[in-house]
Amino acid sequence: MNATVLIAEDDKRQAEVLRLYLRHEGYEALLAHDGRSAVDAVRRLRPDLLVLDVMMPGIDGLDVCRILRQETTMPILMLTARTAEEDLLLGLDLGADDYMSKPYSPRELMARIRTLLRRVERATPSRADSVLRVGPIAVDTVRHEVRVDGRPIACTAGEFTVLATMAAEPGRVFTRQQLLERTRGWDTMPTTRTIDMHVMNLRKKIERSPRTPVHLVTVHGVGYKLTDGGRRAPE
């Protein structure tokens, strides 16, 4: 199946030019014209790559990159009219995979996109590797799904990240601050209390008895850890 590329560019004429080039290359091309729309489109449509303009209304491209990098490993190629080295480095520090300065050659941009997509294809884990299992809990980091004893569980983005972070290292104790760093980007005023709320909500969804949890447990004076509760994962 052809890769899907989301173009986040507030210049509609330029975005349309890029869409035509992408279609000529055989890609499916989607458009977003502001930062909030770009974030929403990535969450809903799960494109394979994001071409992201830095200067956009609402949420700028740097903040879009910061938010999405907490949620996805999808490659992000940033476009900017800024040429200062500090701006370029900031974009890369926030998680951008590549950077092009305006004006740019659309043909060179297509070459960069092909390179990034090939890199992802080589690095993509198998479906089995993408599922983290802790006892009866299965966290699919590719499909962004959670199941308990095979039953699907609906989670918010913050809840999913908390659970996936701990499922990747079962038995490890995470402090609230460590979990907070992983979930930045969704909460307008994030605090360690936010993590307590995520944990409380997750317990209602994954524990048989939320008041006496056996999987998502508190380590008093430190934080939280995820355990198998002494139960085997379903075959």
Automatic annotation (TrEMBL):
What's one GO MF term for it?
A: transcription cis-regulatory region binding
What range(s) does the OmpR/PhoB-type domain occupy?
A: 129-228
Annotated GO biological processes are: regulation of DNA-templated transcription
- SUPFAM superfamilies (alphabetical): C-terminal effector domain of the bipartite response regulators (SSF46894), CheY-like (SSF52172)
> DNA-binding region at which residues?
129-228
Looking up InterPro entries in the UniProt record yields: CheY-like_superfamily, OmpR/PhoB-type_DNA-bd, Sig_transdc_resp-reg_C-effctor, Sig_transdc_resp-reg_receiver, WalR-like, WH-like_DNA-bd_sf
Response regulatory domain residues: 4-117
State whether keyword Transcription regulation applies: yes
Entry-annotated residues carrying 4-aspartylphosphate: 53
Gene Ontology terms: cellular component: cytosol; protein-DNA complex
Q: Which PROSITE patterns does the UniProt record give?
A: OMPR_PHOB (PS51755), RESPONSE_REGULATORY (PS50110)
Q: Which UniProt keywords apply?
A: DNA-binding, Phosphoprotein, Transcription, Transcription regulation, Two-component regulatory system
Q: What is the name of the protein in this document?
A: DNA-binding response regulator
